[in-house]
Amino acid sequence: MAAAKRKAEKTGRAADIFQSIEKSPWFFPAFAAVMLVGVIILFRQFLFSDKMLFGSDTLNAGLFFRHFYVEYFKAHGSVPVWNPYIFGGMPFIDAFHGDTFYPLSILKFVGNFYRNLGINLVIHIYLSGLFMYFAARQFKLSKTASAVAGAGYMFAGVIVSMVAPGHDGKIFVATLFPLTILFLDRAFDRKPILNFTLLGLVIGIIILSPHPQLSYYTLWALALYGIFKLVVLYREIGSIAKVISPGVLLAAAVVIGLFLSAIQFYPGYVYTKNFSPRAESKRGYEWATSWSMHAEEAVSAAIPEFSGTSSGEGNYYWGKNAFKDNSEYAGTITLFLAMIGLFFYRKKESIFFGALALFTFIYALGGSTPFFRVFYYLIPMVKSLRAPSTIMFIFLFSMSLLAGMGVQYLLDRAFEKSSRTRKKLVTYIIAVPAVILILAMLFAGAGEGMLSLYSSIFYGNAKTAMVGQGMSKWNLALMNLPNLQTGLWLMFLFIAIVAVLIWLVVSRKTGALVFLFIPLVMMIDGVRFDSRFVSIFDYKPAFSANALTEFFSNIQGEFRVLNLANQAGVRQNYLPFFNIEVVTGYHGNQLRWYDDLLGGSAQSNLINPHFLNLVNTRYILAPQEMQLPPNYFGPDSLRLVRDFGRLKVYENDNALPRAFLAGGYEIIPERKDIYPRIMAGDRDLSRFVYLEEPLPDQFKPIDTVYNPVTIVSYANDSILINCRAQNDAILVLTDNYYRSWEAFADGRKVDILRADGSFRAVPIKAGTGQVLFKYNRSDSAPAKTVTILTLILIGAILIVNLVMWFIEKKKTVQV
After folding, report:
1. 176 neighbors 208 (Cβ within 8 angstroms)
2. Which of 364, 339, 318, 356 is closest to 461 using CA atoms?
3. What is the DSSP string of 366-391?
4. Cβ 393 vs Cβ 214: under 8 Å
5. pLDDT of the residue at 168
6. What is the DSSP letter of 696?
7. How far apart are the C-alpha atoms of 605 and 599, rounded to whole Å?
8. If you write DSSP's letter for every residue of 28-48 in order, what string do you get?
9. In contact, 367 and 431? CB cutoff 8 Å
10. Model confidence over 186-197: pLDDT tens digits?
11. Segment holding 741, helix H or strand E
12. Closest CA to 797 of 195, 186, 102
């Protein structure tokens, strides 16, 4: 009797301590501090070094894009409008060059440019968990339950693994997404105008990330949750009239978001729809389902080591995609607790987010299931998207919130339910770790047999799918087996710890105070797995001027370089980083006509000598072992001019100048019919040009040899050319044609025609002295004005609400 009394008193004291901690104003600061320690440990290799955070796309593209932007802004005080260094030139804002207007990326303008790119990602990953915590609190979850949701979201592989490929836009969207659900839900509770405005603000920032695809997915989730809230509201009040107002405000929030992001969204939308290779809508089902989440990655959402990854030393990816430098791991503990939230919490919100998680998971599987055809044919724009697995951040949010709901159920009602319900709960918390233990033992004792069984069901061609000389996907699976075995044992350990904590609370052997350890266990699990996606890169030798870059920088005039040394370590955007123009580059959203001239995504025309001569390829950079025939571009036209040991530079004497006068021409209305003629080399393209529309009647060019023209100045947004011609002629500039470029012949505006299917041509009258090409920045002025006016509107709404809050607070104090 006395022992039972002491036990009850002890349990009561523990409950009082727990309630005291829950009510403490220091709970969130303590949670934030602990999570910060975890983030610092995770990124310790980077944070305590003088190197940059490694990201493959950051090195391949992002570094050049941002460096070009920052240096241009420092020199001119404005955003660049044209990138002349890759793919024959392309618009900077319209074609998307990263986080140009994303406000949270201000760090790239201050301090160490290279390191701050990584610090920005670290900050976002940290904020993702804090924002998830606030979102969970909006759903009336306790601080402890919200901490579980926040920790699960912050340290999930779905988000952190995006560091390795350098997919910063995806990290930005995933970080901000919890705020969209928070403000949307809060807008139905109180101050709808304020909260719908804040929702619009976050939507706008997300679109400015800019990752159009994930922004689009965000709007899907908001639309679905908004409809859910409107239906719930109607069922509660039974009045259509009272549902109209929040519905209109929700639509207004989306409009605010679109208007706020207009400075990037509108030109980007127009460009992608009309001028980008992505404008081609007939890519087909196979393209739309590329980079789907296959069965191996689906299993890895719970068992992270199952499919392996291409990131980190000693990791081997054997799934059906070509490679995998990220992970869909949503957190073992998160999923374990989420099932409690879904099947025991039993509130309408848990049912909705369970359904949302199921929807996004099926969508992420893409072509792995027949269900994707429904999305492909019914949902607008899905045909123009690919990589359906990128929607998994919404799955992660749903599961993290459900995990918090699961903990909330355990805190609130686990004791109140019938013995039958508690029995089901205990069965669940025993069965799950037991199943994982059995799996761990099976894979430990008969790992190859287990993989063979799996492959026979889900991966029949694993042994014949070759990834290299004598290496199949099956071989990689066997190489990955030790990682999988270790991962299963760790998975069992973490689930067992959480299951024991739940059992102790449910069986009244201890108080809920032990639940405070769950976020810590989630953090440990996240750090141990996510570390493989965090590595560093020494930018100093890689992005400092050297003999190669100085060689090209010291050459006078305009020219392009064909970089054949990518396999030798010279990335496609390496020379552009030093303001050296190249024939191709690394982007993916280049102008459609230049992409077609190249031969499409396969770049089948890249080594055609007639193409290379036309695009002003004066130099070829090749690895030492590559032998180039001296007569490739014409008789004895290719000369070795510099040998850098592992790299060689050849000069092409047949390369056409950047600008020249032509007298011969042919009108071919269909642009794509021009390219075969160029590749055939039937015409001397230094004197002859293919056009798509007739010349004005007053121009009568003569097919003769004209004097060379002179490029007087060549700037980012203006090019001045001296071109005194004895007769009417066509001035050809082999920089890409684009709608925003204007031309002025001796101060008089003239039309620009598209030349040779991609470039600029200006008919000039005899005696014309100068032609000025100038980029019309006013094309973006309307979108910029819309963004500014929307910012003013948002600011006004926020200020009014702030003033009203101060007034109400003052009245409360006086009372």
Report:
1. no
2. 318
3. GGGSTTHHHHHHHSTTGGG---GGGG
4. yes
5. 96
6. P
7. 5
8. HHHHHHHHHHHHHHHTHHHHT
9. no
10. 999 989 999 999
11. strand 741-745
12. 195
Two structure tokens written together for 396? 């992660």
Q: What is the pLDDT of residue 351?
A: 97
C-alpha 663/C-alpha 686 separation (Å) is: 9
Q: Which of 45, 120, 81 is nearest to 536 (CA)?
A: 45
High-pLDDT (> 90) share of the chain, %? 84
| Digit-coded pLDDT (tens) for 479-501 | 999 999 999 999 999 999 999 99
- In this structure, what token pair is assigned to residue 225? 């949750």
φ, ψ at 641 (rounded to 5°): -110, -25
Q: In the structure, what pLDDT confidence band is assigned to residue 516 with cuts at 50, 70 and 90?
A: very high
Q: How far apart are CA 209 and CA 716, in angstroms?
A: 24
Structure tokens at 758: 């991609």
For residue 814, the model assigns a pLDDT of 67
Does the structure show a pLDDT above 70 at 1? Answer: no
Mean pLDDT of the chain: 93
Tokens 């090209």 belong to: 552
Q: Which two tokens stand for residue 166?
A: 């350098």
Q: Given its phi and psi angles, is residue 464 left (phi above 0), alpha (psi -120 to 50 degrees) or beta? A: alpha
Could you tell me if 199 and 258 are in contact, meaning their C-beta atoms sit under 8 angstroms apart? no
Q: Where is 771: in which H helix or E strand?
A: strand 770-775
The amino acid at residue 409 is Y
CA atoms of 406 and 144, how far apart (whole Å): 11
Scan for tokens 């990330």, then name that residue. Answer: 209
Give yes or no for a contact between 37 and 126, defined as CB atoms under 8 angstroms apart.
Answer: no
Confidence band (pLDDT; 50, 70, 90) for 421?
confident
- Continuous H helices in 603-752: 609-614, 674-680
Structure tokens that stand for 331 in this block = 């957190």
Distance CA 749, CA 309 (A): 56
Would you state the structure tokens that stand for residue 578, as one six-digit string?
């030093």
Of 560, 780, 590, 778, residue with least CA distance to 97: 590
What is the C-alpha separation between 144 and 137, in angstroms, rounded? 10
Q: How many residues does the chain have?
A: 815
- What is the spatial distance between Cα 389 and Cα 384, in angstroms, rounded to a whole number? 15
Q: Are 683 and 664 in contact (CB under 8 A)?
A: yes
| pTM for the model | 0.95
**For residue 782, cis peptide bond before it (omega within 30 degrees of 0):** no
Residue 498, both tokens: 């959480």
The residue among 337, 280, 12, 320 whose CA lies nearest residue 150 is 337
Q: Which amino acid is at 506?
A: V
Q: How many Å apart are CA 557 and CA 721, to the nearest integer?
A: 12
Give the C-alpha separation, 443 to 441, whole Å: 6
Q: What is the pLDDT of residue 733?
A: 98
Tokens of 694: 């007739």
CA gap 143, 516 in Å, rounded:
10
Strands, E assignment, 528-680 = 536-537, 560-563, 617-623, 638-643, 647-652, 659-662, 664-667
N- to C-terminal Cα separation, the chain? 52
Phi first, then psi, for residue 409 (nearest 5°) are -60, -45
How far lies 809's CA from each of 195, 388, 798, in Å? 19, 48, 16
Sequence-distant (6+) residues with CB within 8 A of 195 are 183, 184, 186, 187
Look at the block and give the residue holding tokens 């870059």: 549
Alpha carbon 430 to chain centroid distance? 39
DSSP SS3 for 749:
strand
Q: Select from 783, 721, 616, 701 the least CA-distant residue to 207.
A: 783
pLDDT tens digit sequence for 435-454: 999 999 999 999 999 999 99
Query: Residue 643 pairs with which residues in a beta bridge?
Result: 648
Write the Ramachandran bin of 191: left for phi over 0, alpha for psi from -120 to 50, otherwise beta. Answer: left
H-type alpha helices, 139-167: 143-154, 157-160
In 3D, which of 410, 400, 404 has the Cα closest to residue 499?
Answer: 410
Cβ burial, residue 42 (10 Å; 0-12/13-18/19+): buried
